[in-house]
Amino acid sequence: MRPQSFRRASRPQLTTALLCTAASAGAAAASSCPPGTVLKGLNYLKDGQDPVALEDSEYPAWVFALPSNKAATTKGDKGDPAVELRKQRAGLKKATRAAIKASNDLKG
């Protein structure tokens, strides 16, 4: 008897309301979502409602300091030791995986 396989739940489609990001054009931090916008798809409670965007002054300052994407932060940090360690770890992981596969091929 085969165990029941479970399907992975599909990810919700991102809407334009979810893509609200902080403006990073050197001006004062400002949200791209107007106050009162319903942010569809962010509710995770069964009986809850989708959150509503607030005024920019109601958010903490660190929210607007967050990077917009991960690639932009790692690409420009060439001398950062954390980036170098992540690259080294990825290389070691690849080498270990290749060694395990080679060992398994020898076993038959």
Descriptive terms for the model:
mainly alpha, 31% helix, elongated, single chain, 0% strand, 108 residues
Number of domains: 2
Number of strands: 0
Order of helices and strands: HH
β-strand percent reads under 5%
What order do the helices and strands come in, and which of them pair?
Blueprint: H1 70-75, H2 81-107
Can you give a write-up of this model?
The two termini are 27 Å apart. The chain folds into 2 domains: 15-67, no CATH class; 69-107. By secondary structure, it is mainly alpha-helical. It contains 2 helices and no strands. The radius of gyration is 22 Å and the shape is elongated. Helices cover 31% and strands 0% of the residues.
Q: TL;DR?
A:
By secondary structure, the protein is an all-alpha fold.
